[in-house]
TrEMBL record:
Pfam family, one: Ala_racemase_N
Keywords for this protein: Lyase
Protein name: D-TA family PLP-dependent enzyme
Keyword Zinc: no
InterPro entries hit by this protein: Ala_racemase_N, D-amino_acid_metab_enzyme, D-ser_dehydrat-like_dom, D-ser_dehydrat-like_sf, PLP-binding_barrel
Species for this entry: Lutimonas vermicola
Keyword Lyase: yes
Leader peptide range in chain numbering: none
Classification lineage: Bacteria, Pseudomonadati, Bacteroidota, Flavobacteriia, Flavobacteriales
Amino acid sequence: MRNSKWYELSDNSKVISPSLLVYPQRIQQNAELMLHIAKNPERLRPHIKTHKMVEIIQLQLELGISKFKCATLSEAEILAKAGAKDVLLAMQPVSVQLEKFTELIVKYPRTGFSTLVDSMAARNAFEEVALAKDMMIALWLDINNGMNRTGIIPGEEAKNLYISLKNCPSLDVKGLHVYDGHIHDSDPILRARNCDQDYQAVLNLQRDLELQGHAIPVVIAGGTPTFPIHEKRKNVELSPGTPMLWDEGYGRNYTDLAFLPAAVLLTRIISKPDKNLLCFDLGHKSVASEMTLPRVKFLGNHDFLQVSQSEEHLVVKCRNSHLYDLGQALYAVPVHICPTVSKYPEALTVENHVITGTWTVAARDHTLNEY
């Protein structure tokens, strides 16, 4: 296809819109760059919440990555089915989720499962279940070092909780989990400074525990924006997630990270309701919409201003709307890819401008359906 852009299909006439397109060659490049930054596959514990696809898990396994992080029980199960050796459920399971988590441990004995704990109440619940089922449950102490979403603030209470976990025969404490998703400075120097500053409390906690004879073997730290910073620390596993598909939000904010957009939405003009207005079939149900407009970046040379969005529609102002036809297909990169992927049951794979197959978004639901 001469003079075509990387994202364009040679023939989109049979593609339902909106559709999620993924580009395996770019995903491979992103995975290799992620590994290059980490320097060693053993340092990596990538999160699969962005893509939720078995094929992307398998691609990472082929690169020697064996440890993963996930957010839901269905994500944990597809990791086990794909052959992952080490899976961290990075959401503290409570109530029925705790019961289901232990069922995964029994169902997939070749995979080592672990999860998070951030309070004595949760620790006691894990111990009760472990004793009742005569099993060992592996846990990471979840640390709140500034995000204020989950975790325990590093200090005396955290130290006592870690020691209590270590002293419990039915609980296997692995180390610390520190997610610093509140750090999102565009300037990499400022980002590193803030990351190091907030991580100091973790270092202090490690030091205090070591002085009492409780050395922490491993810390899982950071997400996509900070994993290159944490790479410089010893005994730290890195947990990027977004790099596999990337998106416009991260691409715009973190220009120092050279990952490629590898997921694109194909959308069509469904109405021209007024002069200089175009309406696309790209509503809240088709793309992440938790942020302010714009919700996507249209690829190509388009003078669009996104002005409104509803469940099924995205309206843009366009000074040259007469140049666009009803039914015309355009391509757009989501500002936030993670919640966008879960809106689609499958992604269409594109290689050399041709659709080559489909990848099921296997873990889009909270409970796993067979794929």
